[in-house]
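Exam revision sheet. Question 4 asks you to relate a sequence to its structure. Input first:
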Amino acid sequence: MTTTLFDESLNRYAIKMSSDELPVLKALERETYRKEMQPVMLSGHLQGSLLQMFSKLMNPKRVLEIGTFTGYSAICLAQGLPEGGLVHTIEIDEERQDIIEKYIKAADCQNKVVTHFGDATEIIKGLEEDWDLVFIDADKPNYEHYFDLVIDRLKIGGIIVADNVLFEGKVLLPEEEQGKNEKAMFRFNQKIKNENRVEVLILPIRDGISVIRKVSN
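Answer key, structure tokens:
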């Protein structure tokens, strides 16, 4: 579940003072909230705008997203692609295929986004790409494994963005009081902090976003 770690009035103010959300993303958010059991998993305006900003600043040729949900973040990531650039996005739940592909087409991103459905750990192994930008927003116990799968294929200067790394603030709980997701995020954060090939900045946006930049092989 995704939560906001600071006052909701500040969240509304930040949204108000940020650039407007694309109309297609507003429509996707409305439909997601009507149809999904846990619509808060959607990236939303602020986080989506951050991903869009990273993409526009980096002009990445190849982007990997692990955890499509209904496609909001994939559309945001596609906004900064240069000619011939691609977002490969992976979703475990095939029942979301219709809404994902509907809105990718509505955003005119059908030639920029390649959708994959199934086990991300297996799909990633079959993608023969070198990544400029990776977004991880999937099952928390596998975050460490996802990092290991992509880090060698991430270009120097490339960025991994990982969502939910503060997990509702529960990473601060004593270990014996943490559930499996909090423990997974705590381990992941420690792993990245001790990884000498990257530099990392955790941002307290929504549920915590880790920005991980590769500095060496």
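Marking note for examiners. The radius of gyration is 16 Å.
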